[in-house]
Amino acid sequence: xxxxxxxVVILGTGAAGEFAAHRLAARGKxxxxxxxxxxxxxxxxxxxxPSKTLLRPTYLHGESEKCFGTGEVRLDxxxxxxxxxxxxxxxxxxxxxxxxxxxxxxxxxxDGHLDGPGRVQAGSRTLCAPDIVIATGSEPIIxxxxxxxxSGYWTNREVVSxxxxxxxxxxxxxxPVAVELGQMMRRYGSxxxxxxRFERLMLAEEPELGPLLEEALRADGIDLRLGVEVxxxxxxxxxxxxxxxxxxxxxxxxxxxxxGRRPRTAGIGIETVGxxxxxxxxxxxxxxxRAGQGLWAIGDVTGPPFFTHRSIYHARCIAATIAGLDRPIxxxxxxxxxxxxxxxxxxxxxxxxxxxSGIDAVAASFPFTELDRPYTYQKDWSGIGKIVVERSxxxxxxxxxxxxxxxxxxxxxxxxxxxxxxxxxxxxxxxxFPTFAELYWHLGEELDAIIGDSxx
Length: 456
What we know:
By secondary structure, this protein is α/β, with parallel strands linked by helices. The protein has helices spanning 15-26, 41-46, 48-66, 77-87, 94-102, 148-151, 156-160, 176-187, 209-219, 308-322, 351-356, 373-377, 406-418, 423-427, 439-451, and strands at residues 4-5, 8-11, 31-34, 106-108, 113-114, 119-122, 125-128, 131-134, 138-140, 168-172, 191-196, 223-226, 230-236, 239-244, 249-252, 254-257, 261-263, 290-292, 295-297, 335-338, 343-348, 361-367, 384-390, 396-403.
């Protein structure tokens, strides 16, 4: 077949690729996308959308137990799973494809790969463009554990698409996927064990957050095995047995592998465009998302952190830049949320990371016990907020919170970091009373007491 000419060809239509296609088409570009699976990718069908849909009823279930004067919320799995199926469009992406086509985008359903500068091979079709965007996403890491492959395992895909609740699950890994889905499945009735090789959860976040989450998970009846590694997996009499490094074992109907993800760079032809990428590493890009002349990479394929909002942000930036508007990528204010109960939210640098980078940083914490809103919200809860600033200027470097709805008010700190505001701006902001966001003026006064004379 003859070569087909476009302004931009996008390889992959997960959150990053799909969003970029819409933005570029809206800016008048002739765009082709190549997709081997489903438009909207992991997020739309096996991650964000179905998991947050399934999590919502379990939030209410947990809140009803902690609130005052309320009864236990009944979880109707057939109705919940049916709504989940609606949210993922019964795994049919034709509506999303039609929306792209209506914008003038050419949708090619093939397992495509780069075929030299400015070229993408998609089945028998050769697509050419001066700008090629790599948006192939990420894939789960499967550790080389003895017996794992032979015994069989689940990933997030099987958990969020299940039709019946299993009696028991063992999660290998204690990151956001494991704790979110583990708590969710426990509240749906499964016996859950989480095995994490580190001594505490949320190791990359402020050290105050992990213990709060651990306490909540144990209160839900989850068996946390911290500081141990999985050494063997075997399948015996219809059950999976997980042998641990401390000599103990855990058994379950199924094992869920949740040790992280890696960029999907294998088999996409990166060597044909002069890129050298280490196995498991992301494609290196500059501050505008360029991986080379006329070559761009966005979203998970560039490496961690693997967040949908980061992927969409990348797409917005490179679409503007390709259209002639220089829009650099700035990830200083990238929020990160673990949707457990309590929610764990953070943005920017931790206190340790800021000091490790050579910044004279100072931090303050404030317990939710000193706020008014929690007492009107529920009777059984715990929470904490923390902020990190540069001592000399007061500029906000990072913030974190563990508590109800922290995924919503973390964006106050995100804006402060993006705008390079002093914490005094948050201290002196009028927050609606009573809300959890009042946390920020309390944190500001705590910083005043630590720093002394507050920055102007």
